[in-house]
Amino acid sequence: MRTNLSEQFLLDPGVVFLNHGSFGACPRPVFEAYQQWQLTLERQPVAFLDSRRNLAKNLLVVREAMAAEFGTSAENIAAVTNATGGLNIVAQSIPLQAGDEILTTDHEYSALEKTWTFVARRTGAVIVEVEVPLPLTSAEAFHDAIVAGMTERTKVLFLSHITSATALVFPIESVIAEARRRGILTVIDGAHAPGHIPLSLDALGADFYSGNCHKWMMSPKGSAFLYARPEVQAMLDPLIISHGWTDDNKQPGVRGPFGNSPFVDQIEMQGTRDPAPWLAVPASIAFRREHDWWSVTAECSRLAQETAERLRALTGLPAFSSPQFCAPQMVAMPVPPCDPLALQQALNERFNIEIPVFEWKGHHVVRLSCQGYNTRDQMTLLIEALTDLLSLQAPQARPSQLHVASGSPRGLA
Fold first, then answer.
1. Of 37, 130, 167, 362, which is most buried, counting CB atoms within 10 Å of its CB?
2. Residue boundaries of the structural domains of the chain
3. Does residue 400 carry a pLDDT above 90?
4. Does CATH number 2.60.40.10 belong to domain 30-287?
5. Model confidence pLDDT, tens digit, residues 200-258
6. Domain spanning 6-26+292-397: which CATH class is it, in words?
7. Model pTM?
8. How far apart are CA 351 and CA 376, in angstroms?
9. What are residue 103's DSSP bridge partners?
């Protein structure tokens, strides 16, 4: 059994923090590296932010570290603030026309649902939503459901790698290959994937992929990347036109103004902004290696699944998937009908537990994240708190004492 790693983090010890999946938590050594980069910036801002003197070189080091970690080339990755921003670059660059179809699922993150709705209204494209069969227990069933939604009008396939609300790992490899065969562009929301599951971007084969480093990589907030295959990079336009853009960015073989691929320069070189979160990513990679974090992930996965099974024994409610398709360190646990906001508030105020509670497609869900700083005692406290607040009694739940009401989930990302 490993030593608990809570002392490596800056979290308030008075809070039982079971919501790493929303915004992550930065280890102390990584945060110190982040602050050191900020101090270096303030001591000589001009030299630090001058792309030709220092910034482009420093960001190249970061991209090389991320490329080695995620199985690609540094020329295929550009630094962005978060996955939503990276995916907006893609969604607003693809040349869609009236009647073109954007194929997606009923499990996507709400911010990106809004992104594609915006694009559809502007272009006249149509969003086609596939219902993923639940519980998810078969890669073949997932593949068949997605492929059944493909038509001659499908231009884009947009999928989460790990879903936010339901904490499922979608088996996306085969549908990416099928989309490529049909000439459909694949756009993958990898917000929860880096550091959570092994990731090899080139081998995966998606055209575009955006992932956060501030969640399961445990980097500072505001560190993420956008990946694009070389063959499709020229398709992209930055959301902000600034120093990195030139009018020949889309010509093959042309380098960007700062010596990188045009794709990298036009996205990364935007003028004054704090690059410290990205520059601290190598420190987070080093921290994970020092503490053998894939072993930590495996132990957290066992603890998360054990906790979900304990709750299922009380509620009698089925899981959303078999363990094979559940995110390793995050599990969406169905609970009896309740007022989600009232339950979340009661867990916070009465038990000091920070955890998201929400309604998804008629299901009431408590989404548990388990990270290296969490303990089995904290999981027991969560089960005891839910038993108290929802009046649970094995093997089935008694009617909830909390009034059912709709509301947006708080703290979900």
1. 167
2. 6-26+292-397, 30-287
3. no
4. no
5. 999 999 999 999 999 999 999 999 999 999 999 999 999 888 887 877 666 666 777 77
6. alpha beta
7. 0.93
8. 16
9. 128, 157
